[in-house]
Design brief:
binds magnesium ion; Carbamate kinase; disordered C terminus; kinase; globular; binds aspartic acid; 8-stranded mixed sheet; VC0802-like; 2 domains; transferase; 15 helices; alpha/beta
């Protein structure tokens, strides 16, 4: 079985939904995982925010606006009156549900129930479309098999058992549709896998059914060597290893949710990144195979804070780094980059929730300097250190840009540099010509 996940823009209009219906029409067994239509989850977040602020009228207006948008989609999507009515009816019941939450106390439970509406709508509308097109498909409710535990980690055993049992009920069916992103939590309540989590759903489902392939369909032709929003002449990378893809996704390549690589890697299932608007494009294949040595891509992650702790007590001492790291552990704040000298350590974080508390505790060790508005530039590839001249090319390209931190040798897959966010565009452009020029000719 193959897993095909379609993102928000792929199901973002009646026209695109029909493109998707066409793409999945072949006979081979598949499970289709859908996001909410593009823009919907953001609107649902807005509605929930209004309800938190007890701005009931604004929330109801936004809900009515959503109703209108979906009515238009429905009118365009179906050709038969029968399906149109069924879809409008379904829509109305969900709009009424959101409205019903506008009265009464509003908590994170109601918020999560609201956030789930986008995927529930997109999958049902799509299922109605397939029925109208006489494509034989079964809609499987993700809320019956996708579950997270008390630590908000996916419950893999439950997923595998429930999904296998559910699929066994339909031995004649080759086409299944389900929701990405949404799940239940350890208390049985509606919850989600965090924003952008539909990729993660697809990967978890793929691992649970031991799929032959996981396809992530978006509106770009694969993972690019550089950020296409910043650099004009980027190109899709044909092949990446799981480790390279994970680094790129984590360090800013928006096309793939970072958590979604691991389940596929663990079960050795290739992941393909494909373009719904250009299905014939080769896209990117992520697999266990080595994709050749050298730097493949660069990604940038903004919103980074660099913290430097300087202490003469560190000189020749042991246990010093552990004590510093413990401060971050205490505040559940992950560290991304680390560099050390004999008397100082610099590290970066992107979650600033407990920054004041962390700084206060670090001050007990020595002087603390904090730099905000930093960006990690992450160059990703395989066996980077075995390709002579790689670092020379990187530093030559960035000769005019101050480098705050350099991290090299932590893995064979990346070199990370910390720069001021103001220098990001210039850095990405300079790397595109300085590091990717030769590869660019082949692309
Ligand atoms: N609809 C959710 C979001 O916008 C999940 C997803 O699209 O992956 O974050
Ligand atoms: Mg996405």
């Amino acid at each position: 079985m193959k897993i095909l996940k379609f993102g928000g823009t792929s199901v973002g209009s009646a026209h695109n939904m029909r493109l998707v219906a066409n793409l999945i029409s072949a006979e081979e067994p598949k499970m289709v995982v859908l996001s909410a239509m593009s823009g919907t989850t953001n609107k649902l977040v807005e509605i929930a925010n209004k309800l938190y602020q007890q701005q009931t009228k604004e929330a109801l207006d936004l809900t009515e606006n959503l109703h209108k948008i979906y009515r238009e989609v429905i009118n365009e999507l179906y050709t038969t009156e029968k399906k149109k009515f069924a879809a409008l009816d379904f829509l109305l019941s969900h709009i009424d549900f959101i409205k019903s939450l506008a009265t009464g106390p509003f908590s994170i439970r109601e918020e999560r129930a609201i956030l789930a509406q986008g995927e529930l709508l997109s999958t049902h509308l799509f299922q109605f479309l397939l029925e109208e097109l006489n494509q034989n498909s079964v809609l499987l409710p993700a809320l019956s098999f996708m579950r997270i535990d008390e630590n908000e980690e996916p419950d893999l055993t439950f997923l595998e058992e429930e999904l296998t049992a559910l699929l066994a009920k339909y031995p004649q069916s080759n086409l299944f549709i389900t929701q990405g992103y949404i799940c239940r939590n350890a208390f049985g309540e509606i919850d989600n896998l965090k924003r952008g989590g539909s990729d993660y759903s697809a990967s978890l489902i793929g691992a649970a059914v031991q799929a032959s392939e996981i396809q992530i369909w978006t509106d770009i032709d694969g993972m690019h060597n550089n950020d296409p929003r910043v650099v004009p002449d980027t190109y899709p990378i044909a092949e990446l290893s799981f480790d390279e893809a994970a680094e790129l996704a984590y360090f800013g390549a928006k096309i793939l949710h970072p958590s979604s690589v691991l389940p596929a890697k663990q079960k050795n299932i290739p992941v393909k990144l494909l373009n719904t608007m250009q299905p014939e494009a080769k896209g990117t294949t992520i697999s266990a195979q080595s994709s050749g040595k050298s730097i493949k891509a660069v990604a940038a992650k903004d919103g980074i804070v660099a913290i430097n702790v300087k202490s003469s007590r560190m000189l020749l001492a042991y246990g010093f780094l552990r004590r510093i790291f413990e401060v971050f552990e205490e505040y559940k704040t992950p560290i991304d980059m680390v560099t050390t000298s004999e008397v100082a350590v610099s590290l970066t974080i992107d979650n600033t929730k407990y920054l004041p508390e962390i700084i206060a505790e670090l001050k007990e060790f020595g002087s603390v300097q904090v730099d905000t508005d930093q960006t990690i530039i992450c160059l990703v590839g395989d066996s980077i250190e075995e390709v002579p001249g790689t670092t020379l090319k990187i530093f030559k390209s960035l000769k005019d840009i101050p480098l705050r931190m350099i991290s090299y040798g932590g893995s064979k897959n990346n070199i990370s540099l910390l720069i001021a966010t103001a220098d990001k565009k210039q850095a990405l452009k300079a790397l595109n010509t300085g590091v990717f020029e030769r590869i660019a000719e082949h692309a």
